[in-house]
Amino acid sequence: MPELPPVVDAGWVRAHRENLVLADVRWFLDGRSGYDAYLTGHLPGAVWVDVDTVLSAPPDETGGRHPLPEPTEFAGALGALGIGDATTVVAYDADGGPYAARLVWLLRRTGRPAALLDGGLTGWPGETETGAVVLPEARLTPVKWPQEALRSADQVSAGDAIVLDARAADRYSGANVLPTDVRSGHIPGAHSAPWSANLTPDGTFLMPAQLREHYRALGVEDGTDVVVYCGSGVTACHDLLALEHAGITRTALYPGSWSAWSTDLSRSVATGVEPG
Prior knowledge:
The chain is of the alpha/beta class. It is 24% helix and 11% strand. The protein starts with 6 loop residues before the first strand and ends in a 15-residue tail after the last helix.
């Protein structure tokens, strides 16, 4: 298979279908069940991957709502779903990929071939099927999370990188507060970069040149170090994949994100539409 870009379209999936595992990573901020949605209709042959239990460790104050899973737990859970060392994964969710991006980014940053399906389930032009898919178990070798791809709260505070906030603009400003948030606002100095701004009105990714211009307006140039966070380290991965799609690779995730930062009352917060 040719070198896999971070985003592929439906035509690419159809052309390589026999060599892929499709992963349905639907998750809903309003509490709806992603698994129930999967059972009622998904891409043919797709397995369901749970953000809360497969792509995350249990929540805690220092790690936030979706800490990174231990590599052995992550590898074991995916192996049980049929994703192994020789597997190429294409992941999707309900639309533009904000939750499927977590799986794709984790796999790519540990050297695995994985991509987002552009447009997600909404943009899939073919048939779907119902019910659960069970694939034969596979062996996925655990790989440690690369430290260069991660940043701690202290490293974010150091101010050595452009910091991007992938949440919606009203959560960045503090106008909209989730019940799970201890405080509202954003990390001082962070720029608002909602993951949805990576997409066209039809829910597909902007072209790489357009993404470069979008991020250049936020201060990201060639060679810039970039750290991305969101509410809990999930949708930030959408920005990270968009940056990769644009050819910008000096990037890292702050896994605890706002859910960890806001809980630590020693950390300052900013409100409003400016970085602060």
